[in-house]
Amino acid sequence: MELMGTTPEQRLLAFDQWVCRELAARLQWPDNAEKKAKLIGQCRAELEKLVLELWRRGWMLDGKRLADHITGVLSQIAERQRAGQVKDFYPFFRHVVSTYVGANAEEIQAEARRTPTVGSLLATMGVARKISTMGPSIPELVAQRREETLREKLTRARKSSTKEKDDQLSLL
After folding, report:
1. Can you tell me the distance from the alpha carbon of 142 to that of 136, in angstroms, rounded to the nearest whole number?
2. From CA 79, how far away is CA 84, in angstroms rounded?
3. 97 half-sphere exposure, CB direction, 13 A CA radius
């Protein structure tokens, strides 16, 4: 899942595509292609919240371990679907995903402590800065995307209001 040698944007897009492929392959979807695509997009956004929850708790999981948690929660949902225990899919999906981190917190925390991340190894060695070839982790990129969305909207709004003022001044 981690793609070294690519830009953070490319890595984040690759992650999104991977999540959508996993969703499509593991779960049962409506026959209507439009509904299926919409649901997959909504479910991808819910899984993004799971990734952010792990990140907010400080559990910086590498790509494989993060992928294992995502596929694990999808497997739980798929199992319940196959058993016929899911009546209303999206609310069920959202509930399982939103409670996953809390329900598995002790195990995830222990896992995060057992296997140190590159950043924690560098901190332990006293290295003050990240190696320039290392980019942000997928959870960090997801968090940045959430933050930048608002930032981008503000930037566009500022540019728009500045352009309007310039247009008004040019009319004078």
Report:
1. 10
2. 9
3. 22
